[in-house]
Amino acid sequence: MAVNEIQIQKEVIEIINDGLLEESSLATFTKNLENYISDLINNDFQKLVLILYKVDVDEHELKNLLPLKENENTAALIAELIITRQLKKIETRKQFNSTTPSAEEKW
Q: What pTM, to 2 d.p., does this model score?
């Protein structure tokens, strides 16, 4: 499993902190996340909104995507958006952490 997959899972678990466990594959983890989100849609929508805020899922992207994919599983779409957002965060951190600052930037 790639380091990014492990890191994505750990970060999502840290944000959600509600019984999700790290899995051997990102696909399995995403399926478990989808089931969890489906439960939130049906039983605790406010908590789902809070999670989406914490993860920083783009509200406009979500609102634009859902009507286009009305025949698809909403929970699966949201789970994929969460995973994609965490991956972008990890890649951004790596990009900024891997650059060595010049003498001027150290000031």
A: 0.78
